[in-house]
Structure formats: C-alpha cells, structure tokens
Write a structure and sequence with these properties.
The complex is a heterodimer of chains A (249) and B (143). Chain A is an alpha/beta fold and 249 residues long. Chain A is built from 8 helices and 7 strands, in the order E-H-E-H-E-H-E-H-E-H-E-H-H-E-H. Chain A has a single domain, classed as Spore Coat Polysaccharide Biosynthesis Protein SpsA, Chain A (Alpha-Beta Complex). Chain B has a domain of 85 residues. Chains A and B meet through helix 8 of A and helix 1, helix 2 and helix 4 of B.
Chain lengths: 249, 143
C-alpha cells in the first residue's frame, strides 16, 4: 500500500473508445492505491460508453467535446490537477498496458523529493509482450538523441506511464506541451527547464490488437514530427541554464 | 513526320542557385515560425519537405531530369512549376478539410456552451427563487 502522507495524488487517464477496458483499469488502480488518491478519466471524444464505464468504476470523468489528441487530453488532466491543488499526478493509459503494481515505485522518488518526473520503463522491468520493431528503432533513436543532448540514459522515452510533481504542472499546461505525442521532446524540455527525471522498472502488458496510436503511416510521421519537435525545443531553450539534476533512487 | 523528342535543357547555374536560396529561405522561415509558436510542428512538415525537395532538385539535376521526364514536361522549369502547383493544390485541399472540421467543432462547442449556460441560469434561478413558507393559516380572499 502506498503511504502518501499529506500529499494529494491524482491519477490521470486519457481514454479514447476504451469502454471494454477502462472499468478494469480504474478498478485495478483503485485496488493498488487503496483509499489514497483520486482518479480522473479524460474522455477524449469517445463514441462509445467509455465515460459511463469509468463512472461506474468510481472515476471522475472530464468530457472533451471532441477528439483533441492524446497530448491535449493529458493537458486537460493537468489543468484539473492544478485547479484542484493536487501535489502529484500519475498518468496512465486507458487500455490496460500499464500494470498498477509499479505505482509505488513511480511515486516514491517524488514523495522523497528526489525527482520531478519518474518514468516507468518497460525495458527495465519484465515486459510481457514484444515491442514492434519499428517502435523499438524509434525508441532507440530518441534515446540516443536524448543521451547526446542531456547526457542522461533513458531507455523508454516514449513511455506514457509517469509520475509528475506539481512544480511541473504549469509547464505541462503551457503551449509548449505537444497536443499529439508528448514523448522525448517533453523530456528534453524538462531537462532545459532544470527539472529532474529518471526511470524505474514497470511492467507493461500488450494493448488491444489492432488498436494503436502508431498504425499505418503514423510511425513515419511520428518520427519526423518528434525529430522536428526535439530540434525546436533545443533551439528555443539553448540559452537556458541547464541543471543536470539526475534523481538518486 | 519524326517522333517528338523531349530534350532536357539542364538548369543554368543561376537557376540552380536560385532554387537552393528559395528552398533554404522556405525552411528557415518555417523553422522560425515554429520556434515562435506561430506554426505547429505537424503543420510545418509539408513546407519543410517542400523546401528540402527544392534544394535536392537544384543540387542534383539528375533527380530533376527524372522528375521532368516523369511529368512529361518539356523543360525543368515547367516541371518545377507543375510540381509547386500540385503541392499547393494538395495543401489547399488539406487546409479546406481542416477548416471544415474546425468549423463543425466550433459550432458544437458553441452549442454545448449555450446549453451549459442555460442549465446554469436555470439552476441559479431555482436557488434564488425561495417558495413562501407554509404558516398553516388559510389563504385570505382578495374580495
């Protein structure tokens, strides 16, 4: 069981057409957290019963009027956390890929003041599925670029399983936060802004077959867009004083 | 009558230099606009690719030759012109689609906002309208 003390934790789950899994995901998190922490599901314009299933499972639901994209759904969650005065946000996917057993490991470094952002890495933990080759190449490429620019070893820069300290919320609700895929470019942004981030092992399960954000031509677009986005972050913040504040776990 | 033969007239050094300068200017302008948040990365990619292609065709004239033959154009300048026209046509079509989608989304937002305001107003009126307390006395006749 996670001991949060006086800290208030909010779990943010962006969801798009996840009526079949969202209930189980919310209940799994509730079991892992006990009575501590609130859960908010951001329904990103789903055309199914995602909101109803999430409410039945005990989550608060933020309804976006239409599909805004994964990054914008996350932003809505951060706006909510900022408005309601939460101390920590734990972001998880709504398709059940992220195993809630890693929640304490993700949150502890933040509670201890050792990191601003903690990323759950599927490559440090026991992965229960094989990552597709194209995605693995992309992850390796972004890892290398991040290492070259920041000197930090991040094995899973595309992981959406993260815990975030409240100091970072205002950055995440700003225009700098991407509206589609907030991945390696956000880590670079954190680095240039002087926030510390690190990885902990996390177990990932395979998502629903055929239901992925990275299908068809999207991986090609994703890689090009992410490279451009990282270049822009480096260009915009080249004058920022960089603090190499790695977290000590 | 002899066969029509397309003769590839290689671009002059001046034309090649102009192509490189225009391509570079397009890329630099696009990057500066993204940096200042005037353009989002996802909308900038086609312009960057367009600028890159212009530079490629200017530097490697062999590619331009293949492109010109593929289009059946008589001159490389015509091929570039037709290529640019096609690029702008596709971009314009994409923008029209985005515009239509955004118009529908704004309409839906306006409707949702109006409904919420009506609900809020009704709830506020319900709160402010306090019904008279029941004293148990019989109502008095107006006569």
């Amino acid at each position: 069981m996670l001991a949060l003390g006086s800290h208030r934790l909010l779990v943010v789950i962006p969801a798009f057409n996840e009526e079949r899994r969202i209930g189980a995901v919310v209940r799994g998190i509730r079991d892992a957290l006990g009575m501590d922490g609130d859960i908010v599901v951001v329904n990103d314009g789903s055309r199914d019963a995602t909101s109803a299933r999430a409410r039945e499972a005990g989550a608060t639901v933020i309804e976006l009027p239409f599909n805004l994209g994964y990054g914008s759904a996350l932003r809505a969650g951060y706006f909510y956390a900022l408005k309601k005065g939460y101390d920590i946000v734990l972001q998880m996917d709504g398709d059940g890929q992220h195993d809630p057993s890693a929640i304490p490991a993700l949150v502890q470094p933040i509670l201890g003041g050792r990191a601003h952002v903690v990323i759950g890495s599927r490559f440090l933990g026991a992965a229960s599925y094989a990552v597709p080759l194209a995605r693995r190449i992309g992850q390796r490429l972004f890892s290398r670029i991040l290492h070259a620019l920041t000197g930090k070893e991040i094995t899973d820069p595309t992981s959406g399983y993260q815990a975030i300290h409240r100091d970072v919320f205002s950055l995440y609700v700003s225009d700098e936060f991407p509206s589609d895929y907030p991945d390696a470019d956000v880590l670079l942004l954190l680095y240039y802004r002087g926030f510390s981030f690190c990885e902990v092992p996390a177990t990932f399960h395979s998502g629903e077959k055929g239901k992925t954000m990275h299908a068809g031509w999207k991986p090609v677009y994703y890689v090009m867009k992410m490279l451009l986005s990282m270049l822009m972050v480096a260009w915009r913040h080249r004058r920022y004083a960089r603090r190499k504040t790695g977290c000590e776990l | 009558m002899g066969q029509d033969i397309i003769v590839f007239a290689a671009p002059t050094p001046y034309q090649r230099m102009l192509g490189v300068v225009v391509g570079l200017a397009l890329i630099v302008l696009t990057l500066r606009m993204i940096r200042r948040f005037h353009l989002k990365e996802e909308h900038a990619l086609p312009w960057l690719i367009g600028g890159g292609l212009l530079i490629l065709f200017s530097v490697f004239t062999g590619l331009l030759k293949v492109f010109t033959y593929a289009l059946g154009a008589g001159a490389p300048s015509t091929a570039i012109f037709v290529g640019c026209l096609f690029f702008l046509l596709v971009q314009s079509l994409i923008f029209s689609s985005v515009l239509s989608q955004q118009k529908r989304q704004i309409q839906n937002l306006a409707i949702a906002l109006a409904l919420q305001q009506a609900e809020l107003r009704a709830a506020q009126e319900k709160e402010t309208h306090v019904p008279p307390a029941n004293t148990g006395a019989p109502p008095q006749s107006e006569a």
